[in-house]
Amino acid sequence: MNEPGTTRGDYFSEQAEEYARYRPRYPAELFTYLASTTTDRHLAWDCATGSGQVAVPLAAYFDRVVATDISAAQIEHAEIHERVEYRVAPAEASGLGSATVNLVTVSQALHWLDLAAFYREVERVLAPGGVLAVSSYGSASVDDPELSAIFAHFEWTTLGEYWPPRRALVGDKLRELPFPFPELAVPEFRLEARWTLAELVGYTRSWSATARYVARHGRDPTPALEASLREGWGEPDRQRLIRWPFVVRVGRAPGTSSSWSTSGARENP
Q: Which residues contact 48 (CB under 8 A, 6 or more apart)?
């Protein structure tokens, strides 16, 4: 999963500023729901936090949030909050104490992780009855079919060969990944935004595939996308509705820890 010049699983350091600025914001209702799943709200761990899009809203509900990411550049661009502590750390080695965490979250990143090692770490750090919540969004659509077709062509044809293989596991594919705890019934959440043309194009510059395209060709492919979208967009500052298919899975830890394998079965210690 390594890329030349990157640490394991780090696809976003080179475009950390764009990631912090242009990634979609999660619905407020999601955080209200996550907080309701646990009676103790002393500590939440946001793993693979990126620039803190989940960590900061969680801080409205938890006494303390530890937010980790393998990318120091992402952490440098993260939003500051007095109850959020950012750390550069891999998913399988959080540095948190055993049985101390009430909620673990992973958003748009589970597909990048070594699942067996990460799930062992989750089982170690979760307090009895604690909760693991993972979420992922798929490909965006625009509120105009022709614009959506142009956008999809850029994502899957122009950039098709530049996506790391695990990128195929986002969105609905999250449901197919192994999950270690009995799952809770989760309400449906919508992930959407009203963006200008510049904001939508900025979002594409935050993609790992865009960075890989630039590294190979020495040029940015997004101006051509912007030119293709401009005629049908209307005024450049017009805000259009952008939607992403959004999946959330939540499970509650048992009272005792056990080992986990990606085969999806519990194993004896």
A: 68, 69, 70, 91, 106, 107, 109, 112, 113
Residue 5 lies in a domain: no
How high is the pLDDT of residue 255? 66
- On the CB side of 40, CA atoms within 13 Å amount to 15
State which residues form the domain around 256: 13-267
Neighbouring residues of 86: CB distance < 8 A, sequence distance ≥ 6: 49, 52, 55, 67, 68, 69, 75, 78
**How do beta strands 246-252 and 126-137 pair?**
antiparallel
Picking from 160, 184, 155, 167, the residue whose alpha carbon sits closest to that of residue 242 is 155
Paired with 142 in beta bridges are: 242
User: In the chain, pLDDT over 70 holds for what percent of residues?
Assistant: 86
Over residues 229-246, the mean pLDDT reads 96
pLDDT at residue 22 in the model: 65
Residue 11 in tokens: 């696809």
Domain count, the chain: 1
Q: Hey, what amino acid is at 114? A: D
For residue 3, being part of any structural domain is answered with: no
**Residue 105 belongs to a domain with what CATH number?**
3.40.50.150
Q: Which H/E stretch holds residue 66?
A: strand 64-69
Placement of tokens 């519990």 in the chain: 266
In a domain, 85, yes or no: yes
34 inside domain: yes
Q: Is the pLDDT of residue 9 over 70?
A: no
Query: Mind listing the pLDDT tens digit for each residue in 24-69?
Result: 899 999 999 999 999 999 999 999 999 899 999 999 999 999 999 9
Return d(Cα 241, Cα 147) in angstroms, integer. 11
